[in-house]
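Sequence design from tokenized structure. All designs in this work follow the same two-part layout: the structure record, then the generated sequence. An example of the structure record is given first.
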């Protein structure tokens, strides 16, 4: 379509799409992955929390996928709690960490039952795991075979360290946080974004350039 300048009446054809530039969206995803809320990111970039939510979800759905199954000799398992809707509704995030690389290879969001753990373990069969290291939760002893399972906190140091790292970067996962998630799907997206930027290191290094805050919007 043709456009006309209100000041000088010059007619021209617009060659750029309306809306925020890609650098603003890039900065929004980077800042959210560093622990800021949607509202805080929106205030910094001069936009709304709903726009930041839309940009983050679009980035996660396009780029943040679970690792492709390969080979993981030793996998550490653990579960950390979170909230959906309100503090009375607990959601458990079951995590699997490859000890050799420190990568978060899979996770499952559900309740504190054998069903959620079984769903995660069924997907981990594609990784040819030789040994699972867990804490003393009874569900592990029921689901894992003897000889393929070690129970003890002394062998789950890596996954416990990742839990602390996740609580540092994601405000929703802090032990005394007042933040709760609205949907389980959003928790899965947040886990995918955390894995993409932090333990798995799959993000483009350009995404971590916080000086983008100075880019005009």
């Amino acid at each position: 379509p043709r456009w006309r300048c209100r000041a000088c009446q010059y007619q021209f054809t617009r060659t750029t799409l309306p809306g925020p530039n890609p650098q603003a969206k890039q900065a929004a995803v980077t800042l959210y992955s560093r622990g800021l809320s949607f509202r805080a990111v929106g205030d910094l970039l001069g936009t709304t929390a709903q726009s930041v939510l839309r940009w983050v979800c679009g980035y996660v759905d396009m780029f943040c996928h679970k690792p492709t199954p390969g080979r993981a000799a030793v996998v550490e398992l653990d579960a950390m709690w979170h909230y959906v809707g309100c503090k009375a509704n607990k959601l458990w995030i079951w995590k699997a960490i490859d000890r050799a690389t420190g990568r978060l290879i899979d996770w499952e969001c559900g309740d504190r039952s054998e069903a959620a753990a079984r769903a995660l373990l069924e997907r981990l069969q594609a990784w040819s795991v030789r040994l699972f290291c867990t804490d003393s939760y009874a569900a592990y002893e029921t689901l894992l075979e003897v000889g393929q399972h070690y129970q003890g906190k002394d062998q789950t140091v890596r996954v416990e360290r990742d839990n602390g790292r996740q609580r540092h970067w994601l405000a929703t996962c802090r032990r005394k946080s007042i933040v709760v998630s609205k949907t389980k799907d959003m928790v899965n997206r947040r886990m995918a974004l955390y894995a993409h930027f932090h333990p798995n290191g799959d993000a483009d290094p350009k995404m971590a350039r916080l000086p983008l805050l100075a880019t005009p919007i």
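Residues 208-217 have pLDDT under 50 and may be disordered. We note this feature because it recurs in several other targets discussed in the main text.
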